[in-house]
Each structure stands twice: as C-alpha cells, then as structure tokens.
Design a protein that fits this description.
Number of helices: 5
Structural class: mainly beta
Distance between the termini: 58 Å
Number of strands: 32
C-alpha cells in the first residue's frame, strides 16, 4: 500500500491543522505521535555534525583545525592539512562516549545515562610525491572519521494529571476519518487494521487494546478510562547510532607557502529510536471498580454513568530506524604568509542523503472487567491485551532523500616556535538551506514544498566558534586545551517541535600527547553541554472550522531536556 496522509499538514514540525470531511479542524502532534514518517526536525538533527569526535589531538584542541594540518581529522575539516604531512602515517582512535540527561521539573523514570565504546578515527596517509620544484609534496589520505553520536537516553515520570494520551489518539483517529466497518474492524478508505496509513497505527493499537472505542455518532473516545481518573505517567526515549564519514582525500604543498586539498566524503548514518509512554489510572486511591485495595471511587463517564470495564494501565512502544548513506565533497586552502602564521579556508558541499526508514508500534493494556457473580465469583476479572503492528518500510523508490547544509570554515593559527600553537576557527552553516529532494508518495499531506517552507520559516544560518591551544613543555610532550560554541540554528529557540532537537552546544576539551621517534600516543577528553528545544509528549486538539474556538484540548505538559556528554579518545599513530 502506498502511503496516504489524509489529515496531515505542517504546523511547526508536528502534524498540524487539517479538515478530514469534518466540521472541525485539528492539531495533532508531540513526541509520541507522528513517528511513522520523517519530519523537518529529523532532517535537522541528522544534518548536525561536530569535528571533535575524530582524532584525540583534534578533540583535545576543540576541533580548531581549519588552518592546522598533519592530522587525519583534516580529511573531514580542511583537506589542505594533508599537504603538511612529511611522511606516511597509520592511526586509530577508539573512544568512550558517556551521555547524561536531565529534564526540568520532573522525576527520573528509567535510565538517563548511556555509555558506549566507539571508533573515532581510523586511517592512513601516504606521501606519494616529493619534489624539488614548486610542488614540494603530494599526499593521499584514506580514512574514517566520526561526525555525530546518537547514543543517549532520557526519561521521566509525573503524577496527578488528568490528561491522557488516549484523548489525543481519539482526536487523531477522528482527524483521519478513521471508522469501523460492519464487522467492527477499524477501517480507512477500504483498508482495514494495519493496512491503513501508519500515521494512525497508534490508534489501531489503542482500539485493539480496548483503550478506545467509537460511539454511534462516529466519535472516538477512551472507552475504559473514567473522566474522574487520576493519571500517573512515565516516558522514555532511547537512541542509538552514529554518523561517520569515509574519506578519500588528497593534499599538496606548493613552495611551503600554499597548501591545497580535496576530499570525497561518503557518509553513513544509522539511528534507532525507541519511544515508550505509559499511564496508570486510579480513582481516589482505588482501582475504579470498588473492589480490592483502597476501594476509592467508581470510575464514571462525564455523564455520571459507571464504567463496566475499567482500564488500569497502558504502555505504548514505538520503534523507528533510519539507515542510509550520503556523498559530499570538500575543498580547502591554507596559506602561510610568513613563518608561524597560517590562514585556512574550507568549503563543504551539501551532503546528498538517501535514507531508508522502518517503523513499528506495540501496545499493552491491563483492565478490570465484569464479575461472574452468577457463579459466585465477585472479583473483577483482569484482562490483558498485547498488540504488535507489522514493520512499515520506506525504502528503494520510497526512500527519503535530502541535502544537508553547505558549510564554510575559516581558520587562523600561530605557531610560537616549537613551544606552542594557538588556533581559532569560525564556521558558518546554512541550515535554512536543507532541502527534501524525494520522499515516499503522498497524495495528500506534507509535500517537498512544505519541507522547504518549513526550513525557510523556522531555521537560519548558524555560527560556530572553536579555539584550541597546544603547549610543549618538553619536546616529546604536548598539553592541549580547547573550547567550542555552536550557536542556534533556529530563529526562535523556544519553538515547540514534534520532538526535542539540539539547538546550541558548548564544549570544553583537554588533552595530552606523547611523541616518540616513529610512534605517538594522544589522549583527549571533551565535555559537551547540549541545549534542546522544549517539547510536548502529545497534543490532540479540536477546533471549530474557523480555527479559533477550541472544542477539545488534550495536551501533555511542556518539558525541557538537556543532554551532557563526556567523551574520551585515545589515538595510537605510527609514522614510516
């Protein structure tokens, strides 16, 4: 079945206002809804790269290597740095990444940390030409450099609320004109159950799990949650994966004054996200059924009628996997006007990505049903339901294809003899230039043009500053430090997106290096503070057709999460 989005339009980054053969308009979104497809926020997150994940020397100096060279990080930053190599080199950099997250105003729920070993860099540089003319040397580099780390967790719980995700799911089903056929099977445009648009699979799972039902007036509603329920909820988001680049680079040296370089980069992205959301329901301390622990109050509908079956808890898990590759090129120049001073410039073309995407949803519920009083059993029966969707795949001709921002880097460094080096970089990234090039067929809903307008409206170019220093108290020992600042790429950093994205980063680095005749060892540490946009877990709002007067408003709270990272890298290199 080809993807059909009947009620999806763009409001910020989430699913927005739409009319689906209804007298109402709808706002639907939040981190737990709309995960079946890519959003502009996803493209934004996958476009972000940092240059402090590669070799330990570049990490220790904050990635400020636009004008520096003779380091394999130059392949991904400024390939002109390859022209500064005087001999062949092999190097490998394992690293340890530790992420820690916290969310304001709530209680931690599950794990809020994640530790992972990874490969920061591996590669080789070969001195293929040395001459006595103006072309002093020419070098070839082949390697891998890590550009982004997607390993992190965050979770929290809160209690005492009265807004359930079931209400938002009911509004979502209504917005898509999802109905029931004569056999009481969920249906949409001739398709049934999991064959309908994956945008509504959460609702399919909710109906199959008895969380939702549809009345005779065609209105979806939480059928087993009383209007007097007190809701305790918990959520978590677990991400794994990374982005890296396989580089084929070349760099040359003209008269020990001008260095030039070119890189063909083949980037690889893999990210798996697991979203979990759960609710538990109580009624003045009881289970809503008037039996067992803490009798409490009976569960009732808004009109006061008592529920025959009472939901006790629900849990929903969604899994999305993005996997793909892209290609770009980099050009760089470094000029040395006089001994000690180096000036560098590099241009990074947009990366053209083709991404496959998979999506799946599961839901489980526990409820108390009618007693079997005729047989002398007055205890309510416990019913459980577990539902699993098939796996939806966007791939091959239905892949997601887009281009990342272009980047322009400037750098200046000064070498104080053999004692010290100071380097400063400035980088400009045009995030408002991200463009969707191809996407799964959609007769209605979000279009390539919608993505373009979204980036032009809400995103802007960003500014990055990197500073690094190296001091050599002994000929064989180097002490390094650095700082980096990635400015906001959003016109309004308080904008509420469908899910949180990193909009600003500060990082602090330090390192040591020990050089021997043919071998060197570098050690580096980086502490990064990532600020993220605020977000809601869900919202499902219904308005009159004029879009002004709300008919129903169902939203979670507004949350803000920050993720801090500790990275440790060790480079072992051999010169020959």
């Amino acid at each position: 079945m080809k993807r059909i989005w009947i009620a999806a339009a763009a409001l910020l980054i989430g699913w927005g206002t739409a009319a689906a053969q209804s007298k109402y308009q709808y706002e639907i979104g939040g981190m737990m809804l709309g995960n079946d497809a890519m959003s502009p926020g996803d493209l934004f997150s996958l476009s972000q790269v940092q240059f402090n994940f590669s070799t330990a020397r570049s990490m220790g100096m904050g990635g400020a290597f636009t004008s520096l060279g003779a380091d394999q990080a130059s392949m991904s930053i400024n390939p002109a740095g390859l022209g500064m190599y005087l001999e062949n080199e092999l190097a490998i950099t394992p690293m340890l990444s530790l992420s820690r997250s916290s969310t304001e105003g709530v209680t931690p729920y599950q794990g809020n940390s994640r530790n992972r070993f990874a490969l920061g860099n591996i590669g080789a540089v070969f001195n293929v030409y040395e001459g006595a003319g103006r072309l002093v040397s020419f070098n070839l580099g082949i390697g891998y450099n890590r550009l982004a780390d997607y390993n992190y967790n965050y979770s929290f719980q809160y209690g005492g609320g009265n807004s359930s995700i079931a209400d938002a799911l009911a509004v979502q089903l209504e917005s898509g004109n999802i109905g029931l056929n004569k056999d009481k099977v969920i249906s949409q445009g001739g398709f049934t159950n999991w064959d309908i648009d994956p945008l509504y699979w959460n609702g399919v799972a909710a109906y199959k799990s008895y969380l939702l039902d549809r009345n005779d007036d065609g209105v979806w509603y939480p059928s087993e949650i009383g209007s007097n329920a007190v809701i305790d909820a918990g959520t978590s988001m677990r991400s794994t994966g990374s982005a890296g680049e396989f580089d084929i680079s070349m760099g040359g040296n003209i008269g020990n004054k001008l260095y030039f370089g070119f890189t063909l980069g083949i980037q690889r992205i893999y990210q798996k996200k697991e979203y979990y959301y759960g609710e538990a329901y109580s009624y003045n301390g009881g289970n809503g059924y008037g039996y067992g622990y803490g009798t409490g109050d009976p569960a009732v509908y808004a009109n006061g009628d008592q529920l025959s079956s009472v939901m006790q808890s629900m849990g929903m898990t969604q899994t999305s996997i993005v996997d793909g590759s892209g290609v770009n090129f980099k050009l760089g120049l470094t000029y040395r006007p006089f001994a000690g001073l180096r000036l560098g410039v590099a241009f990074h073309s947009p990366t053209y990505y083709s991404l496959d995407r998979r999506y799946q949803v599961a839901m489980s519920t526990v409820s108390l049903g009618p007693t079997d009083a005729d047989k002398g059993d007055f205890r309510p029966h416990e019913y459980t339901s577990e539902q699993y969707s098939p796996e939806w795949r966007d791939e091959n001709e239905y892949s997601w294809c887009f281009v990342t921002p272009s980047r322009l880097l400037f750098g200046a460094s000064y070498t104080f003899g053999r004692f010290a080096v100071l380097s400063v970089d400035y980088e400009r990234d045009w995030y408002n230039g991200i463009r969707m090039k191809d996407m799964p067929e959609q007769p209605a809903g979000l279009t390539i043009y919608d993505f373009k307008q979204n980036f032009k409206t809400f995103y802007k170019g960003s500014n990055t500053l990197r500073i690094g220093a190296e001091i050599r108290p002994l000929p064989m020992l180097a002490v390094r430090a650095g700082y980096g600042y990635n400015g906001s790429m959003l016109k309004d950093s308080d904008i509420i997106l469908s899910s949180p994205v990193v909009y600003q980063t500060n990082y602090y680095t330090a390192g040591l290096g020990i050089s021997f005749k043919r071998t060197y060892i570098d050690l580096a540490y980086c502490y990064a503070q990532n600020k993220m946009t605020p977000y809601m877990l869900f919202y499902g709002n219904r308005y009159d057709m004029d879009g002004v007067e709300p008919d129903e408003i169902h939203t979670s709270g507004l949350y803000k999460t920050e993720i801090n990272r500790h990275n440790v890298a060790l480079t072992l290199g051999f010169r020959f």
